[in-house]
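Hi C.,

You asked whether I'd gotten around to modeling the 226-residue construct. I have! Everything is below, sequence then structure, no commentary in between.
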Amino acid sequence: MKILIADDEPLARLRLRNMLQHLGQTDILEAQDGVEAVLATNQHLPDLLFLDIQMPNKTGLEAAKEIKAKHPGLAIVFCTAHDEYALTAFDLSAEDYVLKPVNMARLSQALQKVGCVDHQEKIMVKQGVNSLAVPLDEMICFLAEDKYVVAHVQGHEYLLDCTLIQLEKKHPQLLRLHRNCLIHRAYLKGIHLDENHKPHALLKDLDLQPAISRRQLAAVKKELKS
């Protein structure tokens, strides 16, 4: 799927591009204002636009109105720091309205709304003698134990017949905490220091607090800020 990002702030474009790439989107174009957004849309015919609203020369709302008139079926998601334009945005048939700073879980939700992400992505697990397909987005934490990986889901644990490295390469939604642990980025809530001042991850919907290695701590802190 081809995606166009229109934002007058280069760092904002770079950050959104990196997050989209984490979610498996690689065909990404950029525009630095509303005029460029219209021209790039007409020239490249993207499938999805991420539009900032307050941009020079032509605002995101003005660009969206012009684009929708010519390409009524094109999906538009507004990505802005201002919430007061939401009603106007949806009047223009926007698919979503995302407030900055955007986090990975919210961006993934926006992509799901426009059909860019398979929200039914599943992983095969073992439960006793049974094999089950469990949605990846329900899996909170993956711990390597002996010859297996244990997936922790709210209220359940499953065995996976694969390695953490295989999971990490295949699923960009997962974040490494240390050599024996991955977590789903959407469930990262914070960092807890134990009595020895060693960091552990606080996770949504799970009491488990897996350790964070010194090597991965900076990446975990960066994820919390995103």
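If it helps when you're writing up: The chain has a mean pLDDT of 90.

Thanks,
B.
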